[in-house]
Amino acid sequence: MKRYGNITGWGKYVPSRVVTNADLEQTLDTNDEWIVTRTGIRERHIVEAGESTSQISIAAARDALDMAGVHPKDLDLIIVATSSPDYLTPPVSSQVQDGLGAKNVGAFTLVNGCTGFVYALATAQQFISSGACETILIVGAELTSRFVDWNDRETCVLFGDGAGAVVMQATDVPSGVLSFVLGSDGSGAEHLILPGGGAVHPPSHENLDAGLHSVRMNGREVFKFATRVLGKALRQALHQAGLEAEDIDLFIPHQANVRIIDRAARFANLPPEKVFVNIEKYGNTSAASIPIALCEAFEQGRAKIGDTLAFVAFGAGLTWASAVVKITENTQPVPKSWWQGLVSRWFSPNHLVSNSAPQKTPADHTPEAN
Ligand SMILES: CC(C)(COP(=O)(O)OP(=O)(O)OC[C@H]1O[C@@H](n2cnc3c(N)ncnc32)[C@H](O)[C@@H]1OP(=O)(O)O)[C@@H](O)C(=O)NCCC(=O)NCCS
Predict the structure, then answer these.
(1) How far apart are CA 213 and CA 216, in angstroms?
(2) Ligand 1 atom 11 nearest Cα
(3) Contact call for residues 307 and 137 (beta carbons, < 8 A)
(4) CATH number of the domain that residue 337 is part of
(5) Which residues are known catalytic residues?
(6) Using an 8 Å Cβ cutoff, are 238 and 244 in contact?
C-alpha cells in the first residue's frame, strides 16, 4: 500500500519586538515609501539579545506537536531548515531535539537558505514513503537579523526573524507532498552570499574588518533570477501532480518580495484571491516564511483541511523549490492525555524563553525598539 506523509500539525513563533520601516528611517537612509513600493514590507519581527535559533525553533515545534497530538519522544526524525544556526557546529537540530525532550531521536540540519523548508518537506516525504519513518518534525527557523549589516540599506530592510514547524505523519490516505521540484544554479552564488565564517574566509580580524560576516546581495540579479524560475517551478510542480491552476486552493509562496510573488502567480494563472501574502508584517524570514504563512493561512481561514496547496521558494545557492501539498484529516489517533495539558501550559513560547538555560549568543546589533 502506498504511504503518504500528511501534515497533521503546524505552529509558529515570531519574536514580539516589531521594527517598522519608520524605525529604520531613524538609522538608515531609507523611507517607508521606498520599502513598501519595492518590496511590500511594512515591518518585521526581530529577536532580542539572548534569544537563539534553537529556542524559537522549539517554540514553533511545540505548537505543531501539540496540534498533531504527538509527544516529542514518539518522533522518528527531526529536520531543521536554517541558514542561521546557533553554532556552525554542533548542528542546531540536536539542540532542538534535546530542548524538546525527544530523547535520542535522529536529527539533522538542512542549510539551504530560503528554500530550506520546501527541500526539508520533500526530504521528509521520502522517509515516510519508504517506510523508514512514521512521524517527522520539520522546522524552518531563521535569525537573519544576526547576519545582516544594519548599515546596509539594500539588505537589512528585507529580512525578519521567526520560526515555523510542521509535523508529518504516515497515512494511506493520498495527502502530503503530491509533487515537488528542486533546483539549483550555483553559478549565481555570489549574488546572495555570507562570505565570512566558513572555510574559505574563516573568522579573523581581517575578515571581520572587511565586513565578510554579513549577508551580501545583488538585489537586481536575485530579482531577475527569482522571476525567471519561480513561476516555472510552480507550473512544473502542478504538472507533475497532474493538476491545473484551478485545482489549487491556496498558493503559499516564499515571502521575499510582493512583486516577485505577483509575477509567479500570474505566470501560473493563479488569481490574487488564491495567493497568500503576509510579507508586510514579517519581511523575508527565509526558511521560516512558508511555514509561518501556512499557520497564518489556517488561522485566517484562508486554508482549511482538505485543501490542495502550492508552495514555491527561491534563495541563496542560487536555489529554487516548489511543492504541491494536500492536507487531509488527521487519521492518526490524537491522544487526549495528561501531558497535553502540560504541553500547553509549560511549553508556551513565553514560558520556554524565560525558563530556558541561558545561551551564549552574539551581541545584538539590531536597532533598538522605540
Ligand atoms: C532589493 C530590491 C527590493 C531592490 O528593488 P529594485 O527595484 O531592484 O531597486 P534598484 O536595485 O533599482 O535600486 C534603486 C535605487 O534604490 C536604492 N536603494 C536600495 N535600497 C534602498 C533602501 N532600503 N531605501 C532607499 N533606497 C534604496 C539603490 O541604491 C538604488 O539607488 P540608485 O538608483 O541611486 O543606484 C529588489 O531588487 C529585490 O527585492 N530583489 C530580490 C531580493 C531578495 O528577494 N532577496 C532575498 C532572496 S531569498
Answers:
(1) 9
(2) 220
(3) no
(4) 3.40.47.10
(5) 114, 254, 284
(6) yes
Domain that holds residue 207: 1-358
Question: What is the tens place of the pLDDT at every residue in 286-331?
Answer: 999 999 999 999 999 999 999 999 999 999 999 999 999 999 998 7
Residue 334 lies in a domain: yes
Print burial letters for 108-147: b (CB count within 10 Å at least 16), e (below 16): ebbbbbbbbbbbbbbbbbebbbeeebbbbbbbbbbbbbbb
Considering the domain boundaries, does residue 366 fall inside one? no
Task: Give pTM, 2 decimals.
Answer: 0.90
Q: How many domains does the chain have?
A: 1
Residue whose CA is closest, atom 28 of ligand 1?
154
Smallest CA-to-CA distance from 161 within 257, 48, 63 is with 48
367, three cell numbers: 536597532
Helix axes 338-346, 53-68, angle to 10 degrees: 150
Distance 95 CA to ligand 1 centre (A): 36
Nearest to 317 by CA among 209, 229, 258: 229
Q: What is the 3-state secondary structure (H, E, C) of 183-199?
A: EECHHHHHHEECCCCCC
Residue 370 in domain: no
